[in-house]
Design a protein that fits this description.
53% of the residues lie in helices and 11% in strands. It is an alpha/beta fold. The strands form two sheets. The chain has a five-stranded mixed sheet, sandwiched between helices. A two-stranded antiparallel ribbon has the order 5-6. A hairpin with a 4-residue loop joins strand 2 (57-63) and strand 3 (68-77).
């Protein structure tokens, strides 16, 4: 089953059909013909290959009043080695070219440097003269977006930038640029893209961004205002459910303690034994409430206890 990261990257290209052409031309230096529209087409290639085989996305660049296909781009997100791909990628290209009757490119997308090298290997089909060399968009080719206006104009590009460069020092600047774009997104994309950006940033950048979102920063959006509240609510729900399972008689105290732990774990933070024991041992409801709020901001679970008295 495809991972969340895989599906998220695919959605970026589907939500912004011009993204594939932009990356080919701007990031990889590949010429793209003039076009008036970029359209997401069916990626089901069942006519040639088994029905469970399909490309991640197929984008067709259209030109003129007749909407004539000028180029098709097969987008394949690759996060791990798949020895089947050198055999099916030529099929994807050939079938897409036959269906749309236009030049067709294969664009492999990855945020893993080692996978970028793997994807770049030429594929010898065995037919004289037909060697398919995938065009690869790896982290080195993804633009670093720190400009607010650029982020507003292309939200999917700044999300892709965060996924590729969020662990670097520039991660915080990318996150701030995303906040500038968040207000202009519909509610669903704002929530999904926001989660992707925050989960891609390094701990320090994520902590700074979360604090900005809570403190009324000028780029604050509906997503920013609701992020922590939703996270706490989610943690509370998980904690309360866990509390009920472990014993209803302990009531609100146990539920809140479990909420603290559940929210830390939901954010991917490791919870040391001493932190877990201290939280579960607390009988102070106000303290537990403070910890629930702190769980949304700390970059390390141990910081929860270090600020317990604040």
């Amino acid at each position: 089953m495809p991972s969340v990261t895989h599906e998220a990257l695919v959605e970026l290209f589907k939500n912004r059909p011009t993204l594939a052409a932009e990356m080919l031309q701007d990031a990889l230096g590949q010429p793209v013909p003039p076009f008036t529209e970029a359209r997401v087409e069916s990626s089901d290639l069942a006519e040639i290959v088994p029905s469970d085989r399909r490309a991640d996305a197929i984008i067709v660049l259209l030109v003129g009043e007749q909407q004539r296909p000028a180029m098709a781009i097969v987008v394949e997100v690759q996060l791990g080695v798949d020895l089947d791909k050198p055999y099916v990628w030529p099929v994807y290209v050939a079938q897409t070219r036959a269906r749309h009757r236009c030049p067709t490119r294969l664009l492999a997308v990855t945020i893993e440097p080692t996978m970028a090298r793997w994807c770049s290997q030429p594929i010898d089909t065995g037919h004289p003269g037909w060697i398919l060399t995938p065009l690869v968009l790896g982290p080195a080719g993804v633009p670093v977006v720190t400009d607010a206006e650029q982020a507003k104009a292309a939200p999917e590009v700044v999300v892709l930038s965060a996924m590729a460069h969020g662990q670097e020092e520039v991660g915080e600047a990318i996150g701030v640029a995303f906040l500038a774009a968040a207000a202009g997104l519909d509610e669903e994309r704002r929530a999904v893209y926001g989660d992707l950006v925050l989960s891609s940033l390094n701990a320090a950048a994520r902590r700074t961004l979360e604090e900005m979102m809570k403190s009324g920063y000028e780029f604050q959006s509906d997503f920013a205002r609701s992020y922590v509240a939703k996270g706490v609510e989610k943690g509370m729900e998980k904690g309360m459910e866990k509390g009920r399972e472990q014993g209803r008689q302990e009531g609100s105290r146990e539920a809140k303690a479990q909420a603290v732990l559940a929210f830390l774990e939901a954010r991917g933070l490791e919870v040391p034994a001493e932190v877990r024991e201290r939280v579960l041992a607390s009988t102070d409801l106000a303290e537990l409430d403070r910890w629930i709020r702190r769980a949304a901001a700390v970059g390390d679970a141990r910081e929860l206890l270090a600020t317990a008295g604040s």
